[in-house]
Design brief:
It contains one helix and 30 strands. The chain has one domain: YVTN repeat-like/Quinoprotein amine dehydrogenase (Methylamine Dehydrogenase, Chain H), CATH 2.130.10. It has a four-stranded antiparallel beta sheet, with no helix packed on it. Strands 6-7-8-9 form a four-stranded antiparallel beta sheet, with no helix packed on it. The chain is mainly beta. Strand 24 and strand 25 form a beta hairpin. 5% of the residues lie in helices and 55% in strands.
């Protein structure tokens, strides 16, 4: 009798799960309306539309889409200025600048990080945090207990405790002169190290993380070109960063592969991509990577190297090496790229088109899907649940 009762209970539970439907599989796009890039320079728009956030739930395909307005964010920072907490309940979004007509460039650095509560209905900004000047790249620790921010205009990295959806600044550590631009950060899966990209000196800085404290190991890793986005692989054995050259040609730029063995980090190889890498992502299983590249689409229309489209590159891991598998066109000025939480699809932000493009991975190839998702502003930051 008991085995039958267990079988009935298991069947009822399975049926209830089916009725409840799939769980959320979040991808979040931050869209801004202030800065236009199509002229080849950063230009503040005279009558900007409100900044916004687009929530995409890939529990179904096409994904369920929801737009939230009046959540400030900006393109001035890596597309990794959006991060989703490991429990999938909160999104943090850095707002690196605020308009300032008294300045020649039309803006000044800000210090704000917004926390979006995904469990509320409708999802809304639940609280704020203050980091260093011009927070750009954001990364959670795997446990979700800490949030780390790269402060681009301060030359610092901030460590925050994250509890019940509230970030609390613990301390900030100086990593470089502000002119060097600390653009992005990555936390090792074992929570022992933080790696920060030093854009202007073509280096990565290795910081030690000991609970609630960061310290600079002094280790600097040389990279190909100017590193921007930086990530650990899920197993923690590799750090990847994509470096751009001078940005005034269509020369091929490269991904730098850094091997980690215990406490030691060593740049071990390079993967040619294409011209002007902006961002990249690693699939949840750690076997694939996808990068978006400007390919001259961010230059002025009368520039001899101007092109009408960016590029999307799929690259693959085999043991300790990575190799380029596919290069295909995508929209102009592609900012962010992520794998969906199940690793089956890739999302690309197309800044001037105000849309997201979707791709399906079939074996070692990406195939563009016909569905293109319009967003209320120019998509500039992108994050996916892991």
């Amino acid at each position: 009798m008991l085995p039958r009762l267990i079988a009935v209970a298991a069947s009822a539970l399975a049926h209830a799960c089916l009725l409840a439907g799939p769980t959320h599989r979040w991808v979040v796009s931050a869209n801004e309306g202030k800065l236009d890039l199509v002229t080849g320079t950063q230009r503040m728009l005279p009558n900007p539309t409100p900044d916004s956030v687009t929530l995409l739930d890939f529990a179904t395909l096409p994904p369920r889409v929801r737009h939230l307005t009046n959540i400030p964010n900006t393109v001035l920072g890596p597309p990794s200025n959006v991060a989703i907490s490991p429990d999938h309940r909160h999104v943090v979004i850095a707002n690196s600048i605020v308009p300032d007509a008294s300045r020649a460039n039309g803006w000044r650095p800000a210090r704000d990080i917004h926390v979006l509560d995904l469990d509320s209905e409708p999802p809304s900004v639940a609280t704020f945090a203050v980091a260093g000047l011009q927070p750009s790249g954001l990364c959670f620790s795997r446990s979700g207990r800490h949030l780390v921010a790269a402060n681009r205009a301060a030359g610092t990295v901030s460590l925050m405790r994250f509890e019940d959806g509230r970030p609390t600044l613990l301390h900030s550590i100086e990593v470089a002169d502000p002119a060097i631009e600390v653009a992005d950060v990555a936390v090792s899966p074992d929570d022992r190290f933080v790696v920060a990209s030093l854009t202007k000196t073509n280096q990565l800085a290795v910081l030690r993380k000991d609970g609630d404290r960061l310290s600079d190991t002094g280790r600097r890793i040389s990279t190909y070109g100017k590193p921007y986005r930086v990530m650990f692989t899920p197993d923690g054995h590799h750090v990847l960063t994509a470096g751009a050259g001078n940005g005034n040609s269509l020369d091929t730029d490269a991904l730098t592969v850094v091997q980690r063995k215990g406490d030691h980090f060593l740049a071990s190889g390079f993967v040619p991509l294409a011209a002007g890498p902006e961002s990249f992502d690693i699939s949840p299983d750690g076997r694939w990577g996808a990068a978006v590249l400007m390919n001259g689409s961010n230059t002025a229309p009368d520039n001899p190297i101007h092109t009408s489209h960016g590029l999307l590159v799929l690259f693959r891991r085999r043991g300790d090496t990575w190799s380029r598998e596919q290069v295909l066109p995508t929209g102009a000025i592609p900012e962010g790229v992520v794998f969906t939480p199940d690793g089956r699809h890739v999302v690309v932000q197309c800044h001037p088109d105000r849309q997201l493009r979707l791709y399906r991975r079939i074996g070692s190839r990406l195939q563009e899907l016909p569905d293109r998702i319009p967003v209320p502003g120019m998509p500039s930051g992108l994050g996916a649940a892991r």
